[in-house]
């Protein structure tokens, strides 16, 4: 520890904090969530114990015997001595006596009926709604629809309700409202037919967009390299626009271009082509637009990196090649491209990873349509975890989708490192050895 | 002597109680968040403010000073953003006291403990709850517990553009008789295909504008499933039902509409404003929407002669197995779980008062929704409104609703995915059904009945 450099740590600290908060923590949390049954209905922070009609139905499906089920279901409200004694304590013996007279041993299945029974009191009316509701609770035997914060309390209530001890376990498990650890999400992931579709869509999306990205980025970098400096900068600036436009605006422009009342449809209608939605007409249309939107956006990154890399090639090499009679194509093939190996590796891996996880342009343009044809993996994860008309968001399953993406990303990076012979490229130059 | 001293004591005690409570004024802030609301829905929140005023006055008569500040918020991006905001706030312990949301949220939010039942605080047999339509109250309950109070009612009718209908051969009398024919099952979705095709073929509307459905997922499509004899929930067991025959027939109907050139293949995702503009002014022969559309058509879209230009009915039956129907998807007032029981109690009192027929009528008429209580028929503002009166009479008695079930969200998503895939030609209806079935079995397990 003698050489430990506190100053360096001080300089690194902000970066470390940012990485921990914005990268490590979300990844770890997603990893944790993916092995839980977390959803809107389980909540995030923990659960309580609640038995309701849906719970009873599930218990019946899980094979809980009918006697116990009936016992749980029919307990309801009973006007018994214990309840009457409690009532006497709260509202006086006269009230309790009148209640006994009216409804001794009366059984009521719902709270509303119990409250109605209490309204029958004439001489000793309980006038306030609040008091009457409290009084009704004195006669409650049923466990149904009551939330217990702690498991122990719930078990005590089961014992008090004379529920056979051997049935407690299954009831307690069912009644827990919070999330539990589970591998069901992974099983579900492999059994859902849509998983394969999303995987296929992602493959199409990443491959095509990547080819477009890199190819077009290279094309722009090389062509602008041979242009006079001023026009080269103008061209590059134009192709940089998609990146500096806000994504919402950028996609909106594409929508205006492709809608059935948009630019393409209107222009083509002049030559007799029936107007159609050029973005969503068929899945092919959608794919072309999605690739173009993302490709044009991504190409600028490659263009900038490749351009600067080309500029870094010693001009003497290019001059000497010209002396040797090389044409432009030969220069590109034998000098420029080999020198661009590093930046191509970088852009390819970087873009693969960002394409795998980016879905904002698809969400804004096709929203995965038509008919989920452009629903890529990350968009599906978003839809599952954060977008559901019926309200029950599946955080756990969504996280499993996201984790699968992380795994695929890591495998892809390892593959790239190997494919581009990373070790060799970062080896010390032989001349310095 | 004895009585006098008791009386004295009682007076003294009540005076003390009064003086202490008056000395300690109670200040409370109640926040209301309303989802899916725009300017015309302002009474969803304003009603709470009015209720706060009344409650404070009631308390003042009892000698208690209760100052309620109502904070209102309705600016959320859309339904998903609203639901994310509510659930995240609830997790963080900062949930608004009152939310106005879809009744479908009751199942997951009650399970999660985000909301508390209104029946914990309110007498369901007392005014005004005892005047609310029973079917609406039931929609705001889950598993036999009254979780919320319906905030409004609506229903989702089928619309016809009268001029187009008369040009394809319907007399005025025929058009007037349409709603009754639809209800009796004499005018079906097959007739819709036929008539819309006529309208397109005769050039009355453009290709793809014969039948113009909703352009995004929503409760509306479940209506067409019901039209073909489908059932959403098994009444005996409470489980969700996938009736494959009905579902496939429903998918096929939309595919047929696309094939016949009366519905656009890429209709899904049509911009909302464009959609309204298209239907409100005769660009479309037939479509379906909601009762609240009346306000939009006659307001922003500038249709000054609604009843002269548009006919409305139930959603027609699809075949002999199903019948004409409509779904009502009321929003509900829910009370969230708070640290302070007092805040929950006051919130409950407020939504109770806000459900007074006269107050609710303000919302119903301003936003073109339907009333929640029977007595609204006796309130001039409501009864003199032709749309509210006719829509209530023609649609509400036949309205069903989507089930409050923990997994209904997943069910409805799967239904929609299959429809989307068939409609856009990505899959055949038969293939789509297979996938929907496999998906639902995997997700719902025992909670699904397949027919």
Primary descriptors:
A: mainly alpha; MetI-like fold; 22 helices; 68% helix; elongated; B: 451 residues; alpha/beta; D-Maltodextrin-Binding Protein, domain 2; six-stranded mixed sheet; 47% helix; globular
Describe this structure in words.
Chain A is an all-alpha fold and 433 residues long. Chain A has three domains: 34-67 and 146-182, no CATH class; 76-141; 191-427, MetI-like (MetI-like fold, Orthogonal Bundle), CATH 1.10.3720. Helix content of chain A is 68%, strand content 2%. Chain A contains 22 helices and four strands. Chain A has helices at 6-33, 53-61, 66-74, 81-91, 93-103, 111-119, 129-137, 151-160, 168-175, 184-191, 193-225, 229-244, 247-258, 263-269, 283-311, 315-323, 328-339, 341-357, 360-365, 377-386, 395-419, 422-426; strands spanning 49-50, 77-78, 107-108, 147-148. In chain A, the strands form two sheets. Chain A has a two-stranded antiparallel ribbon. Chain B has two domains: 23-154 and 329-400, D-Maltodextrin-Binding Protein, domain 2, CATH 3.40.190; 158-327 and 407-450, 3-Layer(aba) Sandwich (D-Maltodextrin-Binding Protein, domain 2). Chain B has helices at residues 2-23, 43-61, 79-92, 106-112, 134-139, 162-167, 172-183, 189-201, 220-227, 244-259, 272-280, 293-298, 306-309, 341-354, 357-367, 380-383, 386-395, 408-423, 429-444; strands spanning 26-34, 66-73, 98-102, 115-116, 141-142, 145-146, 148-150, 158-161, 211-212, 240-242, 286-288, 310-313, 326-327, 331-336, 399-400, 448-450. In chain B, strands 1, 2, 3, 4, 7 and 14 form a six-stranded mixed β-sheet that branches. Chain B is an alpha/beta fold and 451 residues long. The chains are: A mainly alpha (433), B alpha/beta (451).
